[in-house]
Amino acid sequence: MSNDVWVVAEHARGQLSESTLETVGKGRELAHATGGKLVALLLTDDERNQINSLAAADLILLARRPEFREFTPEAYGGAIEAALKEAPPRLVLMGSTSVGLDLLSVLSARTGFACLDSCTRLDLRASQLLATCQIYGGKLFVEVALSSATTLVAVVPGSFAKPADQPSGRPEVRELTLPADLPVSRITFHRLIEPPSGDVDITKVPILVAVGRGIQNADNLPLAGELAEALGGAVCASRPVIDQGWLPLTRQVGKSGMTVKPKLYLALGISGAPEHLEGMKQSELIVAVNTDPKAPIFGAAHYGAVTDVVELIPMLTEEARKQGLKKAS
Amino acid sequence: MNIAVLTKQVADLVEGIEIDASGRAVDRDSIRYILSESDDHALEEALLLKERSQAHVEVFSLETGEVRDGLCTALAKGADRVVMILAGQETPPSNHAAARMFASVLKGLPFDLILTGVRAIDDLDGSVGGLLAGYLGLPYVGLVRKVELVDGAATVEKEYPGGFAAELGVKLPAVLGIQAAEQPPRYVPVTRLRQVMKTAQVEEQEAEPASEEPVSVERMYKPEEGAGAAMLSGSAEEIARQIVNLLSERRVTR
Hints:
A: 28% strand; B: alpha/beta
């Protein structure tokens, strides 16, 4: 059995994604500790800008085709399935992302290999590979022994540090021979839809007042607006608030929303599911308020308080005005 | 146009959640069940398609949690038929086993689209939608936020980070993992729900048994309470003052 670790490389608009680089770093550590190789699986139309970012891989398996320019689940999945069946590795890592989640379960069903989602830790303990996954919005951690010969694992972006420096060596690049009878994809890429414009760009605002389910209803949103105004910042939100239509998509932080790194992230009534944390945990200062003392957001915050945000927000606004906190513009 | 919607009940996180004596599973007695949020969106998207293109919508749930209430709610919202799939087991199945059971029921039925939530909060071994598509040999797209039916195919919007999305064309039949419907899931007044529950026909259907447990859980644990954050205490007013003092001292707004 091979002890190789494969990483499915993701790219968007020609660039390799950050989460792939993080996963390559961790995958290399695990592969080398078990005497295997780190293999990057790169499906692309043009590898020239991407291969340099994959210097930490021991081997790059490259499939270059015009239809791999943009991700489509079936074309990518079919090619990866063929490669996996040909030489199954110990571990296949992908992102718990829009790309990885379209591949993970379908590949598991097609190959019979076990699969795991929402992985935030990978450890090697007494030669046993262990994955830790977060379920119930980060309220429970599950430690799973990867006892199957091959396991597919989707890793939450931001779980592993991106290696500080790239190894100087050049990985071997091997062209992946795809079977001639690969089925024609029933999914076609039409076009990329740009983010809506014309609203505040929350990735550029240094002070963010972020609201979640704890804001309770749309009528309470103006309270958050007043606080943002008093602090000289802007309002953003977690997924449930956006899905209710209370704020536009442009204000969404987290997976499929924006990734923000403001000077202050004031998380009000946000429980802190992994999908949200991946979009804000690099903020310089995180202050979180939630009624649930066990909310996972406190694990990411620098300061926390347990109280009802609907009651607290007007008090914060009043206090901020009293202390003249807003930057003179 | 025939649409199947697969839904399941999950723990309501507002109520808290406990680990059982084995330390490897959730204590099911501690759970209050609600419909999985993204399944609610999948149902909403199906109902929007029904309104726009006269689709026939059938909702399927495995017999776990408090399924009957959820299925009655789906009827009250406008589903044409609801089916409870008898799983023949006490413990909730893994997603692999659930997908096998759904596959055994849906195989050969004339559905053009199978919609389900892209993921549930208790998913560990992948998602039911992707697994089902794999077993049935159908195309699958997840993180979908919009579905349009055009000449026997679906045009879908799939979400990407940073507010980007892709428009994809998908040949039918297909399985779609819905992230969010085009509008918030509709609300059913309690009086209407009570009325429907009196006369509701929840059909029952047996699935081929499946018991795959592809994942071996070593242990389950809760994150350390308040780990990481320095906790501020006092009344709401005192907390407000401490937070603003903190921002003032650190000059974050300057």
